[in-house]
Amino acid sequence: MRPRVEKIVLVADLAGTAVFAIEGAISAMRSGLDLLGVMVIAFIVALGGGVTRDLLIGATPPNAVADWRYPALAFLMGGLAFVFHQQVLGWSGSTLIVLDAAGLALFAVAGAQKALNFGISPFVAMLMGTITGVGGGVLRDIVLARVPVVLQADLYASSAFVGAAVLIICRRFGVPPVATALLAGAACVALRLLSVSYGWQLPKVIVAS
Is the full-model pTM beyond 0.90? Predict the structure, then answer.
């Protein structure tokens, strides 16, 4: 059972890395950055959340350093996005939202499961899944000098948290690992897409200017 769980974490982590590297490259190109800037932002978005998670749970050195596949994949996908920029920048907004939701779900599942593998408590594991999903985007926006989008978007971080929570619940009830990962990922994607479609947001304070 344990090798299968670890394989699920690896697959989800690498798939999320690929998806978020492309998304990071798109953000960088739309901000007018050159090739180096695109590669740096792709790397940050793809691996920033995972590095933060690994440092917090004591999985050192982080995978981005210990496993060459992570940085290689991030740079490869960022480079491909740059080379085929005309096609990539032509993707519709709905396509990017679905792509982003998929990456968020993959990282939420991988982050929460890896935290559990390291003996982290269930609630904190849910937080680690959330951090894995949103960490790269937060770092990207800090580098690009803007308020993190993930803290303003429709139930973005909340979707990652719910996905991680579903994973914890499924694990508690003995659902098989593959089914657990699929259910958790589906919950995250569904909530994210529904929140975008219907404009769902968490309450916030409106300050008069």
Answer: yes
